[in-house]
Amino acid sequence: MYAIPLDDNGGELGPLEPWHAEELLACVVRGRDFVGRYLPVPDKITDLESSRAYLRSYMEKAATDTGRLYGIRLDGTLVGVVLFRVMDVEQGTAEVGCWLEPAAAGKGLVTKAARHIIDWAVEERGLHRIEWRAATHNEPSIAVARRLGMTKEGVLREYFPHAGKRHDFEIWSVLAPEWRAAKAAASA
């Protein structure tokens, strides 16, 4: 398996496929309470078969060019994912998302991984608009959107039902010209 180094501290980004189901399930189990505060992933991945089904669903999305899923590893252990939950190549849009187990939080892995896949989407696939959505009380996720240079566009009030209540979601985005300008400024 090929992996893209994210840092000098053992962080890597790489593909996830159905044969990674046990590894994904173990990651979800370790992060169940942490991830489950904001996302329904732990409700969807509860056993080996649901883990395989989740990975197969993203293989299908990749095959139809409507989404992608990548693993974030730290010292060889799967600790989270970064993904294009949805992609519309014809419209030039995608929504990037992530989740991470608590032991890997605060190391910048999500920001670095998201940077890689956004760059791929803009430069290789020609997408024009990349969105990031996060519950308004999910400060770590909102901080990633800020670090990626995204612009807050608004709040979808009571948009997302999760864990027995409806949550407000913020929408952040970056456009291809903004992404390229920020990259150029960073390398200058």
Automatic annotation (TrEMBL):
GO cellular component, one term: cytoplasm
Database matches in Gene3D superfamilies: 3.40.630.30
Keywords: Transferase
Presence of keyword Transferase: yes
Pfam families: Acetyltransf_3
CDD domains from the UniProt entry: NAT_SF (cd04301)
Name assigned to this protein: GNAT family N-acetyltransferase
Species per Swiss-Prot/TrEMBL record: Streptomyces mobaraensis (Streptoverticillium mobaraense)
Taxonomic lineage of the native organism: Bacteria, Bacillati, Actinomycetota, Actinomycetes, Kitasatosporales
